[in-house]
């Protein structure tokens, strides 16, 4: 028990006493309270019923919760169990909580549970000693008048029922819970095996890739199950039995995508982009039943696209764009309004700078003049008048010199057949290995174009963010960070647009990115460390201290319940899109 905590009866007396007073009376609730089987912490009380909800925690001793330690004995299993329990809490809230009571957010109980992906988050924390639930609760009011008895009902009737349904082993469907944890562990095992097998991704036979709609990540009913071409079929034996498509087996078989340059080709509406989108999301584990549980992509994969209008700061674009008209250099390129080709070049170079060695591209979201210049255009516009080195003429060099693999959806440009190691054709959502046919066609129908790489891509240029250019303050507030959506982060007075950072999947990741930038600026941006080094430090901090290290609330003893871990690549992407940041090259 926490020293200085009050009894649960005292909390009830306070709520009865302040019933009918002004909303500020709720401030008296802050603190810790002892209940027979758990402790309740009220960390933050909202100033009015229309403000963000109050922050609560419930801590249950393992002597009461009794979850088997084998379910959280290592980091992967712990993250999986915590994710599973957060989902159980959300289900219990939906079943038990009465919902809206009064003005604004009154009566609402929410927990930050995930979508189809399983991501490390702060909503539930499991240790050998206890389980802690972090949740938000809208303290009820009529206008700005305290509804103390309504709050008492929430905390003394609804909350205990939510706990009983979701955070005790004896009420947990044990087999479902074990399968969930083991499924996540299996996926991470496959991810760790990819490099040893010289693969960049794996798609299981029977996987369901199509989603219900463009705004839903749920699987499409009656979709065609994936089936690997024979030449690309590989098998893995994970540490746990594999439940897949309603069957139990010791191993799993599917398509392994080799390192190198892979083209995904095919006619329109046959599943090319659907496969690529599954690979984009394959950097995260997925919940059982998603259909993409065993679509696993290497953790360093980054989706690249054109992004008109973005800011670029001190990027050496010369590997892709050399001297501009009037002799302007591109080695220290800056702009507040990048073109499609310029932004796509910068996105690639920034991803490599952050450590990615696997690029995912789709021609539909790429700048055409960045991807290729065919023989006819070469004949019309001489190379001395074209500053762009097409990606076609760098993609092989990226692999040979830097071990950077590329998976590229291409439906309209056969010039890429000349550089491809593997070619997969999608036909009615089923893949075929057409590599040999593609090579024969490339040999029989030469393009007649000349490679356009006037210089060798010698090295990656690293950049150093400068202190005082990462400022989260707003007015009198030293730290003002708000995730308005997955795609928009307000950092101090500056909006950071993340619509083109397509592997961000959760609002709580965006929120965590804001706090990560603040932590970096506060402790580690010193004018000497480059972006890659800052990402290394941040990953080490998160691995050792947890996501709580990001939040200024946690430093005051309060624990945030609405953060989800972003990857280093999305953190770096946000830093690169912060319009106030200044950098210098190393």
Short description:
This protein is α+β, with helices and mostly antiparallel strands and 586 residues long. It is built from 14 helices and 30 strands.
Proportion of beta-strand residues: 15-25%
Q: How many helix segments?
A: 14
Query: What does the largest sheet look like?
Result: 7 strands, mixed
Question: In total, how many beta strands?
Answer: 30
Low-confidence parts lasting 5 or more residues at pLDDT below 50? none
Helix fraction, binned, reads 25-40%
* Cα distance spanning the termini: 51 Å
Overall shape: globular
The overall average pLDDT, rounded, is 95
Question: What structural class do you assign from the helix and strand content?
Answer: alpha+beta
Topology:
Layout lengths: L5 E2 H11 L12 E4 L4 E6 L9 E8 H4 L9 H22 L12 E2 L13 E3 L3 E8 L3 E2 L2 E2 L1 H19 L7 H21 L4 E6 L6 E3 L2 E4 L13 E4 L5 E3 L2 E3 L2 E7 L2 E5 L6 H10 L13 E3 L3 E4 L7 E4 L17 E3 L4 H15 L3 E5 L5 H4 L3 H6 L14 H8 L2 E5 L12 E6 L2 E4 L1 H10 L18 E3 L15 E5 L2 E4 L2 E4 L9 H18 L6 H15 L22 H10 L5 E3 L1
Parallel strand pairs: 1-2, 17-23, 17-24, 19-22, 22-23
Antiparallel strand pairs: 2-3, 3-4, 4-7, 5-7, 6-7, 8-9, 10-16, 10-18, 11-12, 13-16, 14-15, 20-21, 24-25, 26-30, 27-28, 28-29
């Amino acid at each position: 028990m926490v020293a200085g905590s009050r009894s649960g009866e005292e909390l009830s007396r306070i709520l009865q006493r302040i019933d009918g007073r002004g909303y500020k009376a709720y401030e008296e609730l802050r603190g810790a309270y002892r209940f027979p089987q758990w402790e309740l912490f009220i960390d933050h009380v909202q100033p009015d019923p229309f403000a963000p909800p109050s922050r609560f925690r419930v801590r249950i001793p393992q002597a009461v919760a009794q979850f088997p330690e084998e379910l959280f004995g290592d980091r992967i299993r712990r993250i999986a169990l915590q994710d599973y329990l957060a989902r159980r809490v959300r289900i219990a809230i939906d079943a038990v909580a009465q919902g809206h009571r009064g003005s604004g957010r009154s009566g609402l109980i929410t927990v930050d549970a995930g979508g189809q992906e399983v991501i490390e988050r702060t909503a539930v924390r499991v240790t050998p000693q206890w389980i802690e639930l972090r949740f938000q609760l809208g303290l009820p009011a009529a206008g700005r008048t305290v509804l103390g008895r309504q709050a008492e009902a929430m905390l003394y009737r609804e909350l205990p029922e939510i706990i009983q349904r979701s955070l005790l082993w004896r009420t947990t469907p044990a087999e479902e819970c074990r399968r969930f944890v083991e499924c996540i562990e299996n996926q991470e095992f496959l991810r760790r095996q990819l490099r040893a097998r010289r693969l960049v991704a794996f798609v299981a036979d029977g996987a369901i890739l199509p989603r219900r709609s463009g705004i839903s990540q749920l699987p499409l009913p009656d979709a065609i199950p994936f089936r690997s071409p024979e030449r690309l079929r590989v098998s893995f034996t994970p540490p746990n039995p594999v439940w897949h498509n309603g069957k139990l087996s010791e191993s799993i078989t599917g398509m392994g995508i080799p390192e190198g340059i892979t083209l995904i080709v095919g006619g329109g509406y046959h599943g090319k982009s659907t496969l690529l989108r599954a690979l984009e999301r394959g950097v995260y584990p997925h919940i059982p039943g998603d259909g993409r549980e065993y679509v696993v992509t290497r953790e360093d994969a980054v989706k690249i696209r054109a992004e008109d209008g973005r800011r670029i700061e001190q990027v050496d674009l010369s590997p892709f764009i050399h001297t501009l008209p009037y002799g302007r250099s591109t080695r220290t390129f800056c702009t507040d309004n990048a073109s499609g080709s310029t932004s796509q070049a910068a996105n690639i170079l920034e991803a490599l700078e952050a450590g990615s060695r696997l690029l995912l591209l789709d021609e539909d979201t790429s700048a055409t003049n960045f991807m290729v210049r065919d023989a006819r255009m070469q004949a019309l516009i001489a190379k001395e008048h074209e500053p762009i080195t097409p990606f076609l003429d760098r993609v092989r060099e990226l692999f040979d010199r830097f071990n950077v693999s590329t998976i590229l959806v291409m439906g309209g440009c056969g010039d890429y057949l000349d550089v491809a190691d593997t070619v997969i054709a999608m036909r009615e959502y089923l893949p075929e290995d057409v590599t040999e046919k593609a090579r024969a066609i490339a040999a029989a129908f030469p393009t007649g174009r000349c490679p356009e790489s006037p210089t060798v891509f010698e090295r990656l240029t690293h950049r150093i963010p400068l202190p005082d250019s990462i400022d989260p303050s707003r007015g009198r507030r030293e730290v003002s960070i708000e995730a308005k959506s997955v795609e928009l982060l307000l950092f101090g007075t500056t909006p950071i647009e993340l619509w083109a950072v397509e592997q961000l999947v959760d609002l709580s990741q965006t929120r965590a990115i804001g706090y990560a930038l603040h932590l970096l600026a506060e402790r580690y941006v010193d004018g000497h460390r480059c972006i890659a080094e800052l990402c290394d430090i941040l990953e080490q901090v998160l691995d050792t201290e947890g996501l709580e290290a990001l939040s200024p609330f946690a430093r005051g003893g309060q624990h945030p319940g609405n953060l989800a871990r972003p990857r280093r690549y999305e953190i770096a992407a946000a830093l690169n899109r912060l319009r106030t940041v200044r950098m210098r090259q190393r």
